From TrEMBL:
It holds the Pfam family OCD_Mu_crystall. This is Ornithine cyclodeaminase. It comes from Pseudoalteromonas amylolytica. It comes from the Bacteria. InterPro entries: NAD(P)-bd_dom_sf (IPR036291), ODC_Mu_crystall (IPR003462), ODC_N (IPR023401).
């Protein structure tokens, strides 16, 4: 039996929250973010090899449930993820997610993984990777507008990849800002809490907007933001949910992950289809230039794309390797693959492992 086939028959490795926490702590979160950004850059560089589509989204009044599939012909991944902003009012997370990585040749799953922590990590790594191409030289100050679950990951990713030293926080709930400052107390970053978005962006070379409300909000207006900065707009991620003033977008060179998806979900949903944007893979492959001068205003209209999950899942799969992990008996293992009914006739103590 081929080694890989034998591996598939051993059960599906599960990276649950505890396992993910152990992996991150073993590697170190900043190293994890840095190594993940390398994998992301490599995968964006081979953009044309991927079978891509906008994610499937099921919308309701309270939020959205999405499926995010992608394949490079060797591996297939798909993430289940929701976005329910009001969940925090009842003690639940805004986002709950998990994903599968599968072998294309056999169709067998080879990894099941939590995606709450991993989504935050891949989002932060993607933001910082894009900023490496677009942020002003010697960026040291990052403004974070919206201080929810993503904030600490963003701060540490920009520290690790760009050398950011100062973080300026603003949230309409000041307790959220205090939460971030407390969590970053031992990070080596200087963290200031500001009383308004206008105050927070003063002196910042990069501005991250990451708010949760499912509405057409205007977090930044054109008159608030001067030239020469980079905006990492990652909170607008579904129809009817935006953060940036349309006039601000029109002033900037706007970069996106996958244009068909961002037209539906991103801040550019406010603009005509003729408004020109640039997909990030073109920057990675040197087909277009990023920041051409220090006065240029750039915006990353990031909505999250399946390639980023694919990169993260493959990175985690390499990290766990062959080390002992929980394995799930998801696929029946009867002697005759055609005789599925025989599983019902077998000894339950032998056949049922979960």
């Amino acid at each position: 039996m081929q080694p890989f086939i034998s591996h598939l028959k051993q059960g599906v490795p599960l990276v649950d929250v505890g396992t993910m926490r152990s992996l991150i702590n073993k590697v170190g979160i900043e190293t994890f973010l840095t190594e993940l950004s390398v994998r992301l850059e490599q995968d964006f560089a081979r953009w044309q090899q991927f079978d891509k589509s906008a994610r499937y989204a099921s919308h309701s009044e309270s939020g959205v449930i999405e499926l995010m599939p992608i394949s490079d012909g060797e591996f297939f991944s798909c993430k289940y993820v929701n976005g329910h902003p009001k969940n925090t009012h009842v003690g639940l997370q805004t986002v709950a997610a998990f994903a599968v990585l599968a072998d294309v040749d056999t169709g067998y799953p080879i990894l099941l993984c939590e995606m709450c922590l991993l989504t935050a990590l891949r989002t932060a790594a993607t933001s910082a990777l894009v900023a490496k191409y677009l942020a002003p030289k010697n960026t040291r100050t990052l403004a974070l507008i919206g201080n929810g679950a993503q904030s600490e990951f963003q701060a540490l990713a920009f520290k690790a990849l760009l050398g950011v030293t100062h973080i300026r926080l603003f949230d309409i709930d000041v307790n959220a800002s205090h939460k971030v400052k407390k969590n970053l107390a031992d990070s080596g970053l200087t963290v200031d809490i500001c009383s308004s978005a206008t105050e927070a962006i003063k002196g910042a070379q990069v501005i991250t907007t990451c708010t949760a409300d499912k509405c057409n909000a205007t977090i930044l207006t054109s008159d608030m933001v001067g030239d020469g900065v980079h905006i990492n707009a990652i909170g607008g991620d579904c129809p009817g949910k935006t953060e940036l003033d349309a006039d601000l977008l029109k002033r900037a060179q706007v970069f996106v992950e996958y244009e068909p998806q961002t037209r539906i979900e991103g801040d550019i949903q406010q603009l005509e289809e003729t408004f020109a944007v640039t997909e990030f893979h073109q920057l990675v492959n040197g087909k277009v230039h990023g920041r051409v001068d220090e006065q240029q205003l750039t915006i990353f209209d990031g909505v999250g794309f399946a390639l980023e999950d694919f990169s993260a899942l493959n990175y985690v799969n390499e990290l766990i390797g062959k080390q002992a992990s929980t394995r799930l008996d998801l696929i029946t293992q009867q002697d005759d693959p055609r005789d599925l009914f025989s599983v019902l006739q077998a000894n339950p103590a032998v056949q049922v492992a979960v």
